[in-house]
Fold this sequence. Notes:
Elements: H1 6-10, H2 19-47, H3 52-60, H4 62-90, H5 93-130
Helix pairs in contact: 2-4, 3-5, 4-5
Amino acid sequence: MRYLTDRKRAVGNGASGTGTEHHWWMSASGVALAFMIPIWLYIVGTTLGTDQQTVITTFSNPFPAILTALIVVVGMRHFAKGAEIWIEDYLHGTAAKATKIAMHSLAYVIIATALYALGKMVFIGLLLGAN
């Protein structure tokens, strides 16, 4: 006798065969973001109105840097997958393909830009800490 969970029975079902996987990924990333973003907003809120060196020092610490990187990567992947579903619902043909490519490209450009800026702050923070 095989024991299958409800999720295991649902995987692979549906028109595209990936709807369950997509739903679980969006649910998990949404919950993760719901826990991470308030903490991140508190960190960012404490740096508002301070000088550049304080901001760099704050984001040079491991926890704010890793949290920021996670929020950017998970948030932009969540955005891209959500936009893809919207595009599939409302656009068709070449317009749908072009818009999907544009949304995924936008997400990856934002990820790359944010990680570059974060890396630069961490590097500058390391240089300032060495002096």
